[in-house]
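Researcher: Next sequence.
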Amino acid sequence: MDELTNKWPELVITISGVFLGAILALWLAKWQLSRQAQEKLKEEKITLQHKYDRILIELRENRDSIKVLSEALGESSVDTTHQEWEYMISIANSLSLYLYHDLINTSLNKLLYQDIDKELYNSYKYVQELYHYVHKQAKYHFALKSIPNPRTQLNTPYKNLSKFTNTVLDHLDYSVNLLDSRVSILNDI
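Model: Next structure:
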């Protein structure tokens, strides 16, 4: 029994040492995980800034293509030819959505402020809708052309496309100006 009472101080010291060691190990692990999370966030912000800069370039190029489409519509008449519609379709085919989809696929858009993310979404939604609308109106025009004496409706696809193109162009002008004013999103996040 004497032997057991003599071992109690050693047992208490051992248990205290294990307990303090476990606390220290947990604190170090938590510190390391928090530091890794900070480094990962820093890398994601840098990647996001690069993607954002490239998206702005893509949006500007889309806006320029839509300006060309608007000018082509302005130079055409109600009786647009097949070649003019093909030219407008080729302009629509030059619109790009790749970089926005790339941002969404990486889920980095969750780091953007909600208003910026919403503006990017709306801009690309309009661009995508215009792409499909050009094709739809061209098909509509070709279908009307195949009908004998469709003169009462032949100008409808042309007018619809002109109106929608100008709407999209106005929105993209607004969006690009707004997003340009927030070029350095790294400082804001």
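Model: The helical segments are 2-75, 82-93, 98-106, 114-146, 156-181, 185-188. Residues 130 and 164 are 7 Å apart (CA to CA).
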